[in-house]
């Protein structure tokens, strides 16, 4: 989209879950290439595993991600170059919430905090977790705000039938993959330009070779769609 000159035509970015990190960084002016290199540079050693028998709310610490957001993101939505909207779930009220102002870093971190994997993010009176819990494909809600706009959307799918469950972590990941599909089929009809792929890489994988392969596929898809 950058190479084809389409980023300048974007009036708003709506993203949820891990895409909230990508979307907020992109809205702040960081290039797609630099965002990818930033994320692919992370490794499992950056995320220490918690002792779940102690009083913790997630298997993995999100401290490394928080440090990255503090370094690269402005503190507030208003400082972004493109209007950005982040979807999250508040576990105190069981509501699916849209944020476009406030503490950008806390809200983005909450939007990607998969329950059971990461701890919820306490922000004001909210306890924020990943928006996929209620809707991982909120195109209908974006369409309400921008009814006359063309919508470009990205959908990922890793779910496969009869996956082997070897641990509690596997169980959480498969549950995540199932819930990712909850709104996908009914909302795809609202999208003007849909990018969709069945991924060979797992949702929480940090395998660098697979990440580069996935990036190359998406780049190929984007160039074939937007270059003219």
Structural account:
The radius of gyration is 17 Å and the shape is globular. A hairpin with a 4-residue loop joins strand 2 and strand 3. It has 228 residues and is α/β, with parallel strands linked by helices. It has helices at residues 18-27, 32-40, 63-72, 104-111, 139-145, 168-180, 184-187, 208-226; strands at residues 13-16, 84-90, 95-99, 121-123, 126-130, 152-157, 193-198. The protein is 35% helix and 16% strand. Helix 1 (18-27) runs antiparallel to helix 4. The protein is built from eight helices and seven strands; from the N terminus they run E-H-H-H-E-E-H-E-E-H-E-H-H-E-H. The longest helix is centred in the last third of the chain and has 19 residues, at 208-226. The chain starts with 12 loop residues before the first strand and ends with a helix. The strands form two sheets. Strands 1, 2, 3, 4 and 5 form a five-stranded mixed sheet that branches. It has a two-stranded parallel ribbon with strand order 6-7.
């Amino acid at each position: 989209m950058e190479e084809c000159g389409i980023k300048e035509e974007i009036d708003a970015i709506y993203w949820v879950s891990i895409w909230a990190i990508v979307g907020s960084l992109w809205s702040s002016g960081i290039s797609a290439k630099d965002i990818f290199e930033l994320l692919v540079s992370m490794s499992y050693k950056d995320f220490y595993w918690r002792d779940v028998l102690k009083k913790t709310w997630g298997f993995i610490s999100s401290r490394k991600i928080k440090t990255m957001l503090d370094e690269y993101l402005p503190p507030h939505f208003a400082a972004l170059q493109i209007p950005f909207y982040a979807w999250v779930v508040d576990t105190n009220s069981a509501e699916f919430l849209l944020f476009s102002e406030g503490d950008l870093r806390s809200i983005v971190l909450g939007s990607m905090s998969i329950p059971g994997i990461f701890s919820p993010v306490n922000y004001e009176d909210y306890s924020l977790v990943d928006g996929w819990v209620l809707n991982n494909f909120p195109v209908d809600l974006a369409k309400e705000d921008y009814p006359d706009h063309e919508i470009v959307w990205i959908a990922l799918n890793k779910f496969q039938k009869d996956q082997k469950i070897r641990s509690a972590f596997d169980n959480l990941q498969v549950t995540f993959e199932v819930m990712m599909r909850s709104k996908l089929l009914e909302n795809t009809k609202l999208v003007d330009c849909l990018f969709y792929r069945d991924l060979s890489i797992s949702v929480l994988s940090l395998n660098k070779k697979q990440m580069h392969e996935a990036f190359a596929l998406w780049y190929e898809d984007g160039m074939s769609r937007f270059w003219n």
